[in-house]
Amino acid sequence: MKSERTYTISELAREFEVTPRALRFYEDKGLLSPRRDGMNRVYSHRDRGRLQLILRGKRVGLSLLEIKELLDLYKVDQRAQAQAALKKYQARIVAFEAQREDIEAAIEMLHENIEKLKTFLEKSASPAALGAARAFEQEAKKRLEDAH
Amino acid sequence: MKSERTYTISELAREFEVTPRALRFYEDKGLLSPRRDGMNRVYSHRDRGRLQLILRGKRVGLSLLEIKELLDLYKVDQRAQAQAALKKYQARIVAFEAQREDIEAAIEMLHENIEKLKTFLEKSASPAALGAARAFEQEAKKRLEDAH
DNA sequence: GTCAAAGTTGACGCTGGCGTCAGCGTTACG
DNA sequence: CGTAACGCTGACGCCAGCGTCAACTTTGAC
Predict the structure, then answer these.
(1) How far is A80 from chain B, CA to nearest CA, in Å?
(2) CA of B105 and C1' of D19: distance in angstroms?
(3) Which nucleotide is nearest to A58 (CA to C1')?
(4) C-alpha–C-alpha distance, residues A54 and A69, integer Å
(5) What are the helix (H) ranges across chain B?
(6) A85 burial class (0-12, 13-18, 19+ CB within 10 angstroms)?
(7) Contacts of B106 in chain A (CB under 8 A)
(8) What's the pLDDT tens digit per position in B54-68?
(9) Which end of chain B has fewer CB atoms at under 10 Å, N or C?
(10) What is the C-alpha to C-alpha distance for residues A34 and A74, in angstroms, rounded to an integer?
(11) In which element (H, E) is residue A4 found?
């Protein structure tokens, strides 16, 4: 018997910087189901893990419903469901990889803009600042147009 | 004189699979500002570029307000603002990289689950089902590769 | 005993991001 | 000429995801 560590609702809330209200809400929506000690919720290590997944899901833009579906796929123990689960996983991966490409494109764009800004700032240390400003503006416009 | 190509609201909406209502909404929020021909909106190539950036921003989980702020950074033409812009860009990059890690973790998790499901299916499957599983695998690979 | 801290269940409120009318004007066709 | 297709501006509606009470209980410290 390990007599695992457990968490109260506010402990978990603090740790992950959400409110207790949010945790109850997730429970309401079927994403969490902590045990009870009388009325009080008692979160296990596994519940904590699920919460992590929930929050990660949110950060990458999934709705609570979508997160629930993914979490529910863990419960697969029937073969028919396993086939369906496989498909869903696969589809999710495709979507995530597209999203990662979006993010990488965004990062790259920001990096380029930073470079432009830096050279702009260097130049404008000299008296030729006004011309550099114009140049930057032109560049920025071009980049907007070239966004294919 | 190039007399550039322009777009009507519904053309642009169809192309990007959003509704005209959404485009008007973005305008309301200051993310787009197409010219007018009388009452009618006339979208330029640049407007189209901005729209792409807006939609990409949405896909990676930014709010319209955040997207607007990023777009507004293009307008930098004052040195004081350039410094601030630099900071914002850098902060965004940090956030995006964290998000990319989240996504990569999610993808990895899904891959692991898929492995589990596959071995489960192979073990518990009749020869027929096993064949089906292999077939699915082929399909899945194709789909991944075709996702450009 | 009592007081604060932490828990509970409703129930209503608010924000973001549009959807969905209603009511109206403008070409453009047959 | 009607009417269909497209556009416009309000203005209200709707859902997700909690925030924010209210009203009450349970627990531990003093």
Answers:
(1) 10
(2) 31
(3) D17
(4) 11
(5) 9-16, 20-28, 45-59, 64-72, 79-124, 127-146
(6) buried
(7) 56-57, 60, 92, 96
(8) 999 998 888 999 999
(9) N
(10) 17
(11) none
Q: Any idea what DSSP says for residue A29? A: T
Tokens at residue A49, please? 């893990």
At which residue do the structure tokens 């996983």 appear? A89
Regarding pTM above 0.85, the answer is: no
Contacts of A73 in chain B (CB under 8 A): 113
DSSP A71-87: HHGGG--SHHHHHHHHH
Q: Is the pLDDT of residue A12 over 80?
A: yes
Q: Which residues contact A128 (CB under 8 A, 6 or more apart)?
A: none
Amino acid at B50: R
Which residue reads 């071995």 in tokens?
B119
Nearest nucleotide to A13, CA against C1' atoms: C6
What SS3 class is residue B110?
helix
pLDDT digits (tens, 9 = 90+) for A87-102: 888 989 999 999 999 9
Please state the length of chain A: 148
Q: In the numeric block, which tokens belong to residue A1?
A: 């018997």
Does residue B8 lie within 7 Å of nucleic acid chain D, judged by its CB? yes
- In 3D space, the residue among B45, B60, B57, B59 whose CA is nearest the CA of residue B15 turns out to be B45
